[in-house]
């Protein structure tokens, strides 16, 4: 596969025209938090506001028709990016909201059932009894942990989790004990935002199916970085954020199987998501509108659709291959620096390009400060994955994450910056 032309790609990203810290070249290694945006995405969002701005699904005038057409075309295009149908794609403001949408469907179904209220056909699988189980993993981002903690607290369900091995993988030997006939949903990350490890989904899906449990996949770190096709995953839901895949802030996606979305009670209620409204009660629209109350984020959807077009032109297999090469290079470089310890897999097998590390004798925040002074933007802290840091007995890590606009020169800049930190602090 031909390597990416990173020089040409960078020309599409206006932010790389600027410098940082007294004229230093910007080396952006924080795409795991949010990616930079190409001009094609910026132009698409701007053009919507300049030429078609109106509230979608409302109004009989031309602008409203154009806005609605643009919005629904975006849905079709984004759904196609993951091999899905448009009607199975729900827009949210981010992946956190998408996961909460599913969690609240369980809560709302449970509360309505307890009061003898009508539920959509098939919604009984969302009703939780005390002692039912919710399964996550120890390497989840807080967005895929806290909603389930809250759901368990409110319903009497039990939260259980799959542990981690010393090398940063899920402990597959525990699946049979953790996923039981009381399990109602298994919600795991596709790729850890801290460890970089990629989850082998097949055994998890098999264990969940054996007990009739649903499976949700947090795909925030996979959809932007590797080919993802929902028809091949075997899961019931996937959630991800647009801003991590070159798209705008403020838009996320939830894909769900048609029959499962149809069985779910709504999360947020109001305009647009209704079928009929009376003073005493209301009925709700079919998915995806059922889950998109209020005026939707049309311009952001158009921008995300442009991001999909951009990534499709490159090809997701090429994106994944490029990041794999960078990951191998980073792991080699860091292995040659005394005192650096990788938190997560030490090789590039089933591994993404999120690389977290600690440096003996220095707090990760100090390492990050010196890297920043050298123009290298990384993230420091627990990366919204505090239990992972506790599992590996570190207060925090320094994390570098790579994307299509990074190259071997950026890998070298990271390594040089770490050596500068060692020299500056005398460790």
Protein architecture, described:
By secondary structure, the protein is α/β, with parallel strands linked by helices. It has two domains: 6-30 and 315-425, Aspartate Aminotransferase, domain 1; 46-312, 3-Layer(aba) Sandwich (Aspartate Aminotransferase, domain 2), CATH 3.40.640.10. Helices cover 39% and strands 16% of the residues. The chain is built from 14 helices and 17 strands. The strands form five sheets. The protein has a seven-stranded mixed beta sheet with strand order 4-10-9-8-7-5-6, sandwiched between helices. The protein has a four-stranded antiparallel beta sheet with strand order 13-14-17-16. It has a two-stranded antiparallel ribbon with strand order 1-2. Helix 3 crosses helix 10 and helix 11 packs parallel to helix 14. The mean pLDDT is 97.
Features:
seven-stranded mixed sheet, four-stranded antiparallel sheet, alpha/beta, globular, 2 domains, 427 residues, Aspartate Aminotransferase, domain 2, 14 helices, 16% strand, Aspartate Aminotransferase, domain 1, single chain
